Amino acid sequence: MLWNASFFTTASANEEPSREEILQQRMTYYVQFEDQLVPWYYLAAIDQYERNIQSVRSDIPKRDGIIAIQFSDEYWAGALNPVSQDTVPTTIDFFGGLGLDGNEDGIANPKDDLDVMFTMANYLSSFGSTEDDYKLALWEYYSSEEVVNQITTISKLYKHFKTTDIDTHTFPIPVRSEYSYRGTWGANRGWGGRRIHEGTDLFAGYGTQVVSTSYGVVEVKGWNQFGGWRIGIRDNHNSYHYYAHLGSYNKDIKVGDIVEPGTLLGYVGSSGYGKEGTSGKFPPHLHYGIYKFNGRTEWAFDPYPSLLQWERQAKKAKQ
């Protein structure tokens, strides 16, 4: 195991906790319920999903605490409870609320991380102990297939890598190869109708390797009339990474595979802008885009600043 569930790291009174300390603290919460209720990586995935949407949604307040999961007053205290922010376990139960006392202090407090985590773990386990049971629980809670798929993807990654520390990235083309790129976000595109450029084009020779920039799960692979031979990867931050105009794929990559930064996906080409197999309508390049899912919709954002940062990091690592 990569953690010690009995160890709880804290910063000194005058210091902010480090990123590593925060991850360790979260893991301590996740693993407390693994044996008797639900695997830690499902709880971690829900927590990460909630953290993701809180970071991009103005209508959802950011929860204070180590854990990001938060419940509505109606869910916690009961829809008919006259005390909307009730913390008394007996009256919460009487009014059909689902908030629980996880640390046995006699209070079911939605601001207490342990009570929150215990409540979510109890909810999941009430549906059963299989992956299908957990998916049903998530559907009943979020009422969205897209959300269920996103959380399932995150849990799959955490389970595979046995850690939540999977936030590193790399440049999508080997930095020692010949390539060029610049910020072209929002530029007009005419083929296929009036639209804007949702990504960054990295120009390189035919056959230049294209690698995954992130940890993630292969969600889509195949032909798209705009992107040609393309591949799409979903990461643990609700982001979809889009690699388009490939000349060919890594033959070992398939939908559902788990990848990490540097995993070979395919090779630069000039495919797209037509029916399947169309190629050569533009110079060879990789079109790289990132789309963010906020729990309701998905939109593209400019990957150019991230590419600059990942390029610097990749070059530094090669020194």
From TrEMBL:
Gene3D superfamilies: Glucose Permease (Domain IIA). The keyword Signal applies. The keyword Transmembrane helix does not apply. InterPro entries: Cell_wall_metabolism_enzyme (IPR050570), Dup_hybrid_motif (IPR011055), M23ase_b-sheet_dom (IPR016047). Residues 196-294 form the M23ase beta-sheet core domain. Keywords: Signal. PANTHER family: L-ALA--D-GLU ENDOPEPTIDASE (PTHR21666:SF289), PEPTIDASE-RELATED (PTHR21666). This is Peptidase M23. It comes from Lysinibacillus contaminans. The lineage of its organism: Bacteria, Bacillati, Bacillota, Bacilli, Bacillales.
